[in-house]
Amino acid sequence: MPNNPQPRRTPVDDVDRAIIRALADNARMPNNALAEAVGIAPSTCLARVRALQERGIIRGFRAELDPAAIGLPLQAMISVRLRAHTREQNESFRSTAPDLPGVLAVFHMAGSDDYLLHVGVAGPEGLRDFVVDHLTTHPAVAQTRTNLIFEQIPGRRYLAPER
């Protein structure tokens, strides 16, 4: 059987870091403006961004939405503990959780809880219904713990460290 080693990752250099920081601040920045901001030619910039995408460093460009503005003003973080740590139960929950109504993000965790779900709902009844209808009835779920979010304070997401 042939040995298939992991592909070798090319290191991220200072120009790549500058591109990543600029796109993290504004992913809709036109290529010409991005090139000017990082001090390289537009053609070089376009090639760099494409290379970052091909290498899996840039995984996509998304719109950041205000949950309250789209009818989901109540947000919560819900910790989920599975009944058993079998591959089947883990995959069962992992494959359904992202598609549940109101789920904004799913995190697979180490520690006392197995998953953390960031959810947005219309109000307290919607949160109760989400937990009762989708979590406590899931055969893999043993326990949940819900924490309300008062305010979300954005951080500087995934920025390559400065040198």
From TrEMBL:
Domain (HTH asnC-type) ranges: 12-73
PROSITE patterns from the entry? HTH_ASNC_2 (PS50956)
Q: Which UniProt keywords apply?
A: DNA-binding, Transcription, Transcription regulation
Question: Which domain of life, per UniProt?
Answer: Bacteria
InterPro entries documented for this protein: ArsR-like_HTH, AsnC-type_HTH_dom, Dimeric_a/b-barrel, Tscrpt_reg_AsnC-like, Tscrpt_reg_AsnC/Lrp_C, WH-like_DNA-bd_sf, WH_DNA-bd_sf
PANTHER family, from UniProt? Answer: LEUCINE-RESPONSIVE REGULATORY PROTEIN, POSSIBLE TRANSCRIPTIONAL REGULATORY PROTEIN (PROBABLY LRP_ASNC-FAMILY)
> What protein name applies here?
Lrp/AsnC family transcriptional regulator
| Naturally occurring in which organism (per UniProt) | Kitasatospora aburaviensis
